[in-house]
Design brief:
The chain has 822 residues and is of the alpha/beta class. The strands form 5 sheets. It has an 8-stranded parallel barrel, surrounded by 5 helices. The radius of gyration is 30 Å and the shape is globular.
């Protein structure tokens, strides 16, 4: 990541002379011209700029120079020969100093709104960026940076060119007041703990350029280890630096501060917490708000939590006058939720607003309806995780879940837009996204842009992102389309998704033609890493699926060649091939992992790069995870060999071969396979319910050590909180007797119960078997006498936490043969 360059400003002299020279220059008519060449431009600043406005000017000059090797000089007056000029400042200051600007930046409906700006490009070579306020200057400068082209369409390798379209007249202001991201400097993140202050400033600047106006830091003590081998500064010192950077840019700095102590009703505990929090907060140059999650982590009953927070709010106001305290009801169980709402009805004045985040029992619609209107509502969406999360990837293939796992590089522009449009309008104040690193970098920019203008086209946002960070012309367009393709790679079964290879070919085309600076660009490296990893997964899945099919063919010969011979042949079929599928792609994944560690300290492996855990982004360690049932089958073969009699061995082999067979008149559903669950009662569309609050989703519990479960038993359908998981059967044999065989998902061992047709108890609350073994239960004849059967699984009502627990992997509805008549 480029470091921040030093920048100095000339004193504000000669502004009267500048005003006089502008008088005959800026009011020229806006002739139709394709582009303005700004390589020779000078920068004119409004008088009396504040520190954040000067930071905006510094950002503008430095970012142009990084991309073009052109450094705009500051000018005291307009060159008499009509050279191009960029004028930057608050609208009021510009008009006071240069009245003739009024013709170009006349007042409009957005000119008084906070953070807005007016950007005009005149055919005469003049560019005006007029902010409504200090932040408006910042975002206007950022928008100009995104609009300019730094190489030229006709000469993509030519440096020293800076162009912008002529005739632009853009007056705009953001829709949402809060737009930002949580960025904790702690071991749990997949890169942040290795960043220097300069890297933090560059990243915050990058996000500001796309419209972000807030950063949420995390204190040294949280639900994480206190130290990291990657730290470049002690956590408290880096938190201070984060806050200072936000202060310099004039954007908000929030603190996510969980109430980690269990006994927050104990006066001694409260006193210690006040001292600890106060010591942290008083060191921060800027604090705009503190957000205390009710859970994830922390678990304090509302009747105890509210008095604790009232004391913290008083301390916060003393240390940072004007700072506000927010809270969430994450993880609350049913009784706690009712206490929470009851206390809110008393409308404590020290509380500014409520945050809607993960592990929430209610929909945002329901929460907004029950929270008094005096409280603002802020969204806290998880944009960083792909499974076991608030917004998991829809119907993810097992191969991806088992290898790329929870914190893979995850550009999901279409999904993120769906989440935004479904929920954000209900959180009227805005959002600060839940993030654990820069694997979600694209998603951050999508949210910031939509937070500014909810009507902006998602593809255009991705194009804007690619143009600015990767390059213009064919390179930028190719990268943008590649990012969109990476999201499509995750749609549907991987085995049949031939588009995954096309995506890699597109990225390889870019890779072959990209300049060295692009190849060293971490955002480009992230796209390549995902493209190669996806394609490798598919190549391995195809090869390992064929191996398993061959092994099953050998097992089917057991009754002819004998059980032991069949097992030996099946083991040979499953043995790793001497020629590894797509070995070159695998090697490239490792090279890109090293490149990402070198460029942004991304920790894609625990042993190699000292990442905290595999599920914390170290997915390189899962690159060889088996994508077929070989681990399970080898264990079963050992069990068969241990049996003495041939007949018993053959019986066990038949059980392996016929695992999915429900028998005559029966039915089998693999609920973790989106293509093989015809009886599952589906819910709403993704656009209507991206959090799966009222719909079943696919979950995973892949095993990395013995005993191994079948893949079909390691993925499952699941529902959240009190939502039942249901299967519907029609046209059953009314005279027959049925039983149900079930394998429950094991990601959570929560007890669940099964009821038929809403009235027949099939089994009471039962804790699921962690070994994913099948259970069989009789279905009362009365339940199927009408030919229809509805199976409903639920868990204990009103519990808190993640809400996960109703997890069903495989279901057989077996028609029991009638007893022969004597």
């Amino acid at each position: 990541m480029p470091s921040t360059c030093r920048f100095s400003f000339l004193p504000g002299r000669g502004l009267i002379a500048l005003a006089a020279s502008l008088a005959g220059f800026l009011i020229l008519p806006r002739a139709a011209a394709a582009t303005l060449e700004l390589a020779g431009a000078s920068l004119v600043l409004a008088p009396g700029m504040t520190g954040p406005e000067q930071k905006a000017a510094q950002m503008l000059v430095e970012e142009v120079e990084k991309r073009s090797q052109v450094r705009w000089p500051l000018a005291q007056q307009l060159p008499s020969d009509g050279h191009p000029v960029v004028v930057l400042g608050r609208r009021t200051a510009l008009l006071a100093a240069f009245p003739d600007l009024a013709a170009s930046i006349s007042a409009g409906p957005n000119d008084s709104k906070p953070e807005g700006y007016h950007l005009v490009t005149l055919a005469s070579g003049v560019v005006i960026v007029a902010g409504n306020d200090a932040r408006g200057v910042l975002y206007g400068a950022g928008r100009l940076l995104r609009l300019m082209d730094y190489t030229g369409e006709t000469a993509p390798d030519r440096l020293g060119s800076v162009t912008v379209a002529a005739g632009l007249d853009l007056a705009t202001a953001p829709r949402y007041a809060l737009r930002g991201d949580q960025m904790g400097y702690r071991p749990k993140t997949n890169a942040y703990d290795g960043w220097t202050k300069a890297m933090w400033e560059q990243y915050i600047r990058d996000l500001v350029i796309f419209g972000a106006n807030a950063v949420e830091g995390i204190p040294p003590r949280s639900d994480d280890r206190s130290d990291s081998p990657h730290f470049t500064l002690p956590p408290m010192q880096m938190m201070i630096e984060q806050s200072r950077i936000c202060q310099e840019y004039g954007i908000q700095y929030w603190v996510w501060y969980p109430a980690m102590d269990r006994d927050n009703g104990n006066p001694a505990t409260v006193a210690a917490a006040l001292k600890e929090w106060g010591h942290v907060l008083e060191q921060l140059p800027r604090v705009d708000a503190v957000f205390v999650p009710g859970g994830d982590p922390g678990s304090t009953a509302p009747k105890i939590l509210f008095p604790f927070l009232e004391k913290q709010a008083a301390q916060l106001r003393r240390l940072h006058p004007g700072a506000k305290l927010w809270m969430s009801n994450q993880g609350f169980n049913g009784p706690w939720m009712e206490d929470f709402f009851q206390i809110l009805q008393t409308e404590p004045t020290w509380l500014e607003g409520i945050v809607f985040g993960p592990q929430q029992r209610l929909l945002l619609d329901e929460l907004r309806a029950r929270v008094p209107r005096r409280y603002k509502m802020r969204f806290y969406p998880d944009i960083t995780h792909s499974l076991a999360s608030q917004y998991p990837a829809a119907d993810w293939d097992f191969a991806y879940a088992a290898t790329e796992n929870r914190e893979i590089i995850n550009p999901r522009p279409v999904d993120e837009a769906a989440i935004f449009h479904r929920y954000q309008p209900l959180a009227e104040y805005g959002f600060l996204n839940y993030s654990e690193g820069c694997n979600d970098d694209v998603n951050k920019c999508v949210w910031s842009c939509l937070g500014w203008d909810p009507n902006e086209d998602v593809l255009q946002i991705v194009r804007d992102y690619s143009h600015y960070f990767i390059g213009g012309g064919a390179l930028g367009e190719g990268f943008a389309q590649g990012l969109m393709a990476l999201e499509r790679n995750w749609r549907g079964p991987l085995l049949t998704n031939e588009g995954v290879y096309t995506t890699l070919e597109q990225f390889q085309d870019l890779e072959r033609t990209a300049a060295p600076a692009v190849l060293e660009n971490w955002r480009f490296q992230e796209g390549l890493y995902r493209a190669y990893y996806d394609a490798l997964d598919r190549a391995r899945l195809i090869a390992e699926t064929r191996q398993e099919e061959k092994a099953m063919e050998e097992l089917r010969r057991a009754h002819v060649i004998g059980s032991l011979a069949a097992i030996a042949a099946a083991e040979r079929a499953l043995a790793p091939s001497e020629i590894m599928p797509a070995a070159a792609w695998r090697a490239r994944v490792f090279e890109l992992a090293e490149a990402l560690f070198q460029s942004i300290h991304m920790q894609l492996s625990v042993p190699r790069y000292k990442g905290e855990a595999v599920r914390r982004g170290a997915n390189l360690d899962l690159i060889d995870y088996p994508l077929n049932d070989a681990p399970y089958l080898f264990e079963q073969f050992a069990a068969v060999r241990a049996v003495a009699g041939e007949a018993d061995r053959l019986r066990l082999i038949d059980g392996i071969i016929n695992w999915t067979d429900p028998g005559p008149g029966g039915f089998y559903d693999n609920l973790g396979d989106a293509a093989n669950r015809p009886h599952l009662v589906m819910g709403k569309s993704y656009a209507e319910d991206p959090a799966y609050d009222h719909s079943p989703m696919i979950g995973f519990a892949p095993r990395i050590r013995a005993p191994f479960a079948r893949i079909s038993s390691s993925r499952f359908a699941e529902t959240l909180h009190d939502q039942p998981l249901e299967m519907q059967y029609h046209h059953l044999d009314r005279s027959a007797h049925y039983k149900v065989r079930v394998v429950y998902g094991t990601e959570s061992e929560t007890a669940i119960q099964l009821v038929a047709n809403g009235r027949y108890a099939i089994h009471p609350l039962l804790r699921k078997d962690p070994q994913a073994k099948p259970h069989e239960f009789d279905i009362p004849a009365a339940a199927t006498a009408g030919g229809d059967l509805l199976l409903s699984w639920t868990k204990q009502r009103d519990d808190g936490g993640t809400g996960r627990g109703v997890q069903v992997a495989e279901v057989w509805l077996i028609r029991v043969p009638s007893e022969p008549t004597p």
